[in-house]
Design goal:
Elements lengths: L1 H29 L5 H15 L4 E5 L12 H29 L6 H15 L4 E5 L5
Helix pairs in contact: 1-2, 1-3, 3-4
Pfam families: YccF (PF03733)
Membrane topology: Multi-pass membrane protein
Subcellular location: Cell inner membrane
Length: about 140
């Protein structure tokens, strides 16, 4: 229940704007065939950005699903990503975090924006999982 309240407040107070920014970055990445892996990551993380509470982003290798995105090619992909689009998403999340830190109720949202800024720097090789264990 607490996650639902947090997600609704998050969505209304800025999560929707940054989620749309992730999806816009995904559309930009789709312009070229080479950008499809980045676009997929943008859409997954964009959806996570809309409703982040109760879930977290982790490396796919940490959950037992290593692939090409978790190895050396993923590192190269993340460097290219950061230089082209990631820096702008990270700046957006940092600015949103600073705006949220102005109020006491916004502090948890600011912390979540900082976590998303880190993800924006290197999204390739990440996956979204529920925080609560599956029953």
């Amino acid at each position: 229940m607490l996650s639902l309240i947090g997600n609704v407040l998050w969505f209304v107070l800025g999560g929707a704007a940054m989620g749309l920014a992730w999806w816009l970055a995904g559309l930009i990445a789709l312009v070229s065939i080479v950008g499809i892996p980045w676009a997929r990551a943008c859409f997954v993380i964009g959806q996570f950005t809309f409703w982040p509470f109760g879930r977290e982003a982790v490396s796919r290798s940490a959950v037992g699903r290593p692939d090409i995105g978790t190895g050396p090619l993923g590192l190269i992909g993340n460097v290219l990503w950061f230089l082209l689009l990631g820096v702008w998403l990270a700046i957006g999340h940092i600015l949103a975090a600073l705006a949220n830190f102005v109020t006491i109720i916004g502090i948890p949202f600011g912390i979540q924006h900082l976590k998303l800024a880190v993800i924006a720097m290197a999204p390739i090789g990440m996956t979204i999982v529920d925080k609560r264990p599956a029953r």
